[in-house]
Amino acid sequence: MLEYPDFLKFSIAPIFDVIVDWILTNLSALFDFITLVIANLFNGVEAALSFVPWWLFVMIVFLLGKKYYDYKMASLLGVMMFAIGMFDLWDSMIYTIAIVLISVIVSLVVGLPVGILMAKNERIEQILKPVLDAMQTMPSFVYLIPAVMLFGLGRVPAVFATTIYAIPPLIRLTYLGITGVDKEVIEAGKAYGSTPAQMLFKIELPQALATIMTGVNQTTMMAMAMVVISSMIGAEGIGEEVLIAIRRLEVGRGFQAGFAIVFLAIILDRLLQGAANSLEGGTVHAE
User: Fold this and answer.
1) Which domain holds residue 184?
2) Could you give the CA distance from residue 94 to residue 257 in angstroms, rounded to a whole number?
3) What is the b/e burial string over 74-94, where b = at least 16 CB atoms within 10 angstroms of the residue's CB?
4) CA distance 46 to 207
5) Where are any strands of DSSP class E within 45-131?
6) What is the model's pTM?
7) How many whole angstroms separate alpha carbon 23 and alpha carbon 150?
8) CATH number assigned to the domain comprising residue 80
9) 89-129 pLDDT, tens digit each
10) Nearest by Cα to 135 from 105, 107, 156, 116
């Protein structure tokens, strides 16, 4: 009586195994094409980022910090970027930024239209809300399983897993931004005879832009978290340094890579948040 009865036990694992086997059997050509596209895109982004001199990276971070905040914050962000190079992790940082950048771009291409559809279609909203809730509560390691099964090991599954993990905030905040537009502004647009497309691109999206940028910020932060975990499936970058440190029990190496990840996350967060706040027309001050 104390143990759970056997006749009530049911496993859903075989269902997913059958689905994955069918996908691998019938859609392998599609995933080979996706792998080729992502790999070439990654190579291009990494090459472009590597072409930029390190000092120009630091200068760009400083100038953006000055634009959105003040000299104090700009100096802090510049020092953080400089410190990553001092830790001999510059190339690893470029690799990490490439994965994050591609993941955020794909999230924008997919997430913005999906968020708009949620705001415009109640049935799609009812379907996607529980899906997004499940995606945001799913343990991040679970996303590595389909990524490895579909794409193997390396940077391509890392991009795939990072994108899937990071996209929900952008979809949700795009939806919230569109639905949160002032009803009086909507009515005014309709009164002037605006078409649905004009309403969307000239009224709703501009009004929701700050909220959408916050979604981009959250998506970027989640991508940063996932790209570190993706080192477990062969992705290089700063996350690989943490993984190597764990395997070899090199405490100092682990802390050094950890600080580099924190610095990079702070830089991206502050700059994206500053961009979002500037869209609202407010003045941003460092805390």
Assistant:
1) 14-279
2) 14
3) bebbbebbbebbebebbebbb
4) 34
5) none
6) 0.85
7) 8
8) 1.10.3720.10
9) 999 999 999 999 999 999 999 999 999 999 888 898 899 88
10) 107
